[in-house]
Amino acid sequence: MPEADDESEVDGAEEMPLSMRLSIADTLTLGNATCGFMAVYFTTTGILIPHLTGSDETGMARHSAATAVILMLMAAIFDLFDGLVARKLRSSPMGAELDNLSDLISFGLAPAYFVLVYGMVADDAHQRVSALAAIVVLLAVVLRLARFSCVTLKDGMFQGMPSPFGALTVVSIVLLELPFIPTLLAIVGVAWLMVSRVEYPKPRGILAVAMLGWIVAAMGLLAAWAFDAPGGQLLLQTGCALQVVLGAVIPLFATARRVNTFRDNRREARAAQLP
């Protein structure tokens, strides 16, 4: 018996590294997590700490905010490509878990923390409310990722707003610099969409190319704003407004499609009942 135990331990030691090998897709997923962590870092060092220490370097805060959001956009690119690479090549047994954990950092923690810091910098009186909104965003992403792991959906569709899209929409709402109450309500609305049953198309084919182009364009807008280029503020607000409009319009199209499908099914059922 001891010899059998020793042999099983050796076999387990030999098999362990096989399951720990990272694929190319897994490496991209880890890049996603790294970008999310660095977004939190720049939000802290460039926005929160200067605010707490009484620094008036608005340029530094603008650069740090732009850098943090650009890192979230880069995380979205990594998230887009790791799925494509996994389908074309392969992913390790850890692939799905790594993807969920990385998404939680980049599209849950990072945007929620951005909301929290926004509330603290905007007005100390709103600090507790903004903390509550940040928790709502974080929990929405946690619930969405958990549901995604447990629910089987029809091919080509997501149930609820995808977490990368939701994170970028939340950050866009903050950057629009609207009054506090409308900003808060819009953020909660996005959190609700992430856990809703509204269907969103998966970024594949032309849609994936369009999404990649939109992310790159958003990076350019953020860079123009960070370096105080002429019209940079207006360009950034326009881009943020378009992101928010997309977040609001897609559910309307999805709802209209579901209504039309329901009507068509009823018509087919009535036609089948006719003699």
UniProtKB/TrEMBL annotation:
Gene3D superfamilies: 1.20.120.1760. It is a multi-pass membrane protein. InterPro entries: CDP-diaglyc--ser_O-PTrfase (IPR004533), CDP-OH_P_trans (IPR000462), CDP-OH_PTrfase_TM_dom (IPR043130), CDP_ALCOHOL_P_TRANSF_CS (IPR048254). It holds the Pfam family CDP-OH_P_transf. Its EC number is 2.7.8.8. One of its GO terms (molecular function) is CDP-diacylglycerol-serine O-phosphatidyltransferase activity. It comes from the Bacteria. It catalyses: a CDP-1,2-diacyl-sn-glycerol + L-serine = a 1,2-diacyl-sn-glycero-3-phospho-L-serine + CMP + H(+). It is found in: Endomembrane system; Membrane. Its main location: membrane. The chain crosses the membrane at residues 30-53, 65-84, 104-122, 129-146, 166-194, 206-227, 233-256. Keywords: Lipid biosynthesis, Lipid metabolism, Membrane, Phospholipid biosynthesis, Phospholipid metabolism, Transferase, Transmembrane, Transmembrane helix. Belongs to the CDP-alcohol phosphatidyltransferase class-I family. This is CDP-diacylglycerol--serine O-phosphatidyltransferase. The lineage of its organism: Bacteria, Bacillati, Actinomycetota, Actinomycetes, Kitasatosporales. The gene is pssA.
